[in-house]
Amino acid sequence: MSSEYKKNSLSLTDAVAMGTGVMIGAGILALTGQIAELAGPWFPLAFVAGAVVTSFSAYTYVKMSNAYPSAGGIGMILTKAYGPTTVAAGAALLMALSMVINESLVARTFATYLLRGLGMEPEGWLVPAIGVGLVVFAYLVNAAGNRSVGLFSQLMAVLKVGGIAAFGIAGLWVGGISFEAAQDGDGGMTAGFLASVALAILAFKGFTTITNSGAEISQPHRNVGRAIIISIAICIIVYLLVAFAVGSSLPLDRIVAAKDYALAEAAEPALGRVGLYLTVGLALVATASGVIASIFAVSRMLAMLTDMKLIPHSHFGMPGTIRDHTLVYTVVIAGAMTIFLDLSRIASLGAFFYLVMDILIHWGVLRNLREDIGARTSILLTAIALDVVVLGAFAALKWQSDPLIVVIALVGMIAVFLFERVFLALNPPSREAVHGNHTSAHKEKHEPAS
Prior knowledge:
Strand content: under 5%
Helix content: over 70%
Largest sheet: none
Structural class: mainly alpha
Number of strands: 0
Order of helices and strands: HHHHHHHHHHHHHHHHHH
């Protein structure tokens, strides 16, 4: 049974649209208020710090993707760094879970903005119900095929990047650029700021969506890295515009109080009632396209891990390919998380899983692959150090405010690695399965395009 990847089915523009689709959908809409709650009046600068950390992290992914573009690329990076081991399979599964968590985060954000636009309080059973409805819609778009996802992602990316950037510019025009500096010697503010960077990193991690679709992107040895860089650059500009606009329109306490729909709350005082409705409309576009792009990427990553015999698979009587089945699994898990977890805990769990996986990727590349791909040791070590500092600060703060989510994250990660250890011991993957047809060979960089 094949997962049937289609080479050259996604253009550079498609890839950039998918990357910005996931980043902007989760980042500026779902996380602005939560970042403000942790960082205080410095919250716009948390996005800058998140961009810096992400830029060092992206270096590893760009280098690896240029050398070994792959469908489900993060799983391939890990297996090249560690072999078909528990570490590689467990870290890949953590990444897949963090992406599914992101889908539930964005789906609930869609629901909160929709209800706010209708003049209703975003609470109760309607929030998860609407969120699950969005996840089902995203499944239908993905089931229609790559071209549908690419065209939809391009259209939505143009609408939301242009619209949200216009909101930021208009908000700054009306309110000016202003936010209060933190007081000197405020250790709590410093710790909160460092912890907030963990959530800001989530606002940028959507670039991995591009890595996970590498083998399907045209001229992948060239375009995967370019798409990652372009997507991050676009999002930095949009995030800063909006963060300063929100900060100049609302006092900090109101941003925190409306943390699940901060942009909608900031739109009305800055732009009036019409501005509120336009912002809600943009939020709906951004979150819908974000869920669609994320489901596209994670389902393909799971399909690749299945083909590599690193995770178990059952079709449960469903017809179609492995990719069709993993699409269904992704949607079911995302829907369940949308129902049972709130936005704050969803974001926290995603941050823990992603940062641990990211550290393992940098370490594996540093130890085993840096010479093969020409990566600089200093940049890899810096990426690891930044991740460790941010993860430590975030874990310490969450242990004080919500220790249960720290316990859930630890138990979840231990369970993932134990599960993979047992599965791989009982079902050792062959070399052919691990190094199958998912990666464009390194040597192809020197071959002429057909």
